[in-house]
Amino acid sequence: MIENFKASWWKFLGILMLLYVVAGGLLFEVPQLPVIRESIRNVYFHVGMWFSMMFITFAALVFSIRYLRYQRAEDDLRAVAAVKTGLVFGTLGLLTGMVWAKFTWGQFWVNDPKLNGAVVGMLIYLAYMVLRGSVEELEKRARLAAVYNVFAFVLFFVFIMILPRMAEASIHPGTDGNPALASGDLAPMMRKVFFPAMAAWFILAWWVFSLYYRLDRLRHQIAELTENY
Amino acid sequence: MGISSVLALIRKEASLEWRQKTAFGGVMLYLVSTVFVCYLSFSGIIPDRTWNALFWIIMLFASFNAILKGFIQEGSGRLVWYYTLVPAQVLLNAKIIYNALVMVVLSLLGWLVFVVFMGDPIQNHSLFFTGMLLGISGLSAVLTMVSAIAGKARNNFTLMGVLSFPLVLPQILVLIRVSGAAIQGEALLSHWQGLLVLLLLTGLGIVLANLLFPYIWRE
Amino acid sequence: MFEAGEKIFVAVAVISLIILGLAAFLFYLEHRIGRSEKKLRELEERLESGPPGESGIEPGARGSNREH
Q1: Would the ipTM clear 0.90, i.e. be above it?
Q2: Mean pLDDT for each 10-residue chunk of chain C (68 residues)?
Q3: Which of chain A's residues have a Cβ under 8 Å away from the Cβ of C52?
C-alpha cells in the first residue's frame, strides 16, 4: 500500500488541486466584466478541458510517429488510449462550452471558426476510431491508424491556426491562437486558480490515459495468449 | 527517371479510364441527375449563396465517387505488380496528378451543367477558375491519400467519407469563400489570402502524402 | 434551507463530491487493472515454465478462449 502511494502521489496531488480549483474557482473574487459576469469562472473548467485535450492528442501524435518509426505494438496502444482520452475531454470541453455559450451568447451553438474547428477535431478522432474498427489485422490496423493520425493532425493544426485569422470576426476570445494565455486576457487575480487548474486537468488527463492504456494492453495480451495456446 | 515514370503512369490511368468509359459515365450521370434534382426542388430560382454551396457540395461527392476507384477498384494483383516496377512515391504522385485532372474535367463539366440548369451567377470567372484549380489540387492530394488508406480497410465507401470529410472541410470552406468572392465580381487579387491558403494546403497535403504513403504501401 | 448567499457552498460541496467520486472510481479501476496485470503475469510465467499440458489451462478451456 505504501509503495502504491509512492508511485501514485501525483494522482492524489491532482485530485487535491481539482478540489482547490472547485472551491477557489467558485468562491474567490473575479473581475466583474459585462455580459460574462460571474460565468467567467468557467475559464478554470472549460479552458482546462480543451487544453488537456490538445495536450493528450499531441501525445497521440507523438506515439503514432514513434509507431511508424519503430513498429512497436505498445506505441500503437498508447496512441489509441490517448485518442480515447482526448475524445472524453473534448466532449467535456464541448459541453461546458455549450452551457457557457447559452448564458453569454444566448445560444448553445454559434457559427464561429473556433467552434467549427473544435467539431472538426472531434470528427477526426471519431473517424480514427471508425478506421480502427474496420481493419481486422492488428499490424495493418496500427499502421493505417498511425498514418491517418499524423496526416489528420497536421492538416487540422494548420486549419485551426489559419482559419480563425481569415475570418472577419470571431466571437470566441483568443483570435491570436492562444485563448486565456495572452497577457491581456486573464486578470492577475485569476492566476492563482487558473494555473493550478490547468495542472490539475493535465494530471487528470494523463491518469485517465494511463488507465485506458493499461486496459487496452491487458486486452491485447489476453488476445495474444488465447491465440498462442 | 521519376518524372517519366510518373507521366507513363498517368497515361496508363487515362487509357484504363478510356477503356472503362462506364465508370466515368456513371459519375457524370450522378452529377447531372443531382443538379437536375436541385433544379426541380428550387424551381429554377436559386440565390447566389445557395448556388455556390450546392456546386461545391455536389462536386465534392462526385469527386469521392471518381477518386474512390483510384486504389480501391484496382485489383490487388495489379498493385503488387506496380510495387515491383516503381517506387511508392512515383505511383502516389501519378495518382494525385491524375485524380486532379479527373476532378478538373469533372468540375468544368459540372459547371456547364450548372450553367444550363441554374444559370451562371459568377461575375469574375478568372478568380473562380483559379480558386477551383488550386482547391482541386489540394483536394486531390487529400482524397488520394485517404482513398489509399480506405482501400486497405473494409466498408471502403463509408470509410472514405468518414475519413476525408473533416480533412477536406477546411479546403471546402476556403474554396466556397473564394468562389463567393468570384460570384460577387471581386478582383482576382483581392482574395489573395484565400488563394494563398489553398496553395499552402495543397503543398502541405502533397508533402504529407509523400512522407506517409510508403507506410501504407508496404505490405 | 439555505440562504441565498450560501447556495454557492452547496454547489462547491456537490461538485467536490462528484470529483471525489470520480477519484474513487479511478482508483478502483486502477486497483482492478493492477490485479489483472498481476494475474496475467503469473499465468504467463506458469505457461513459460511448464509444458502446455501442465500449465493449468484445460484443453477444453483453450478451445473456448479461442472463440472470443
Answers
A1: no
A2: 72 91 93 90 82 50 41
A3: 229
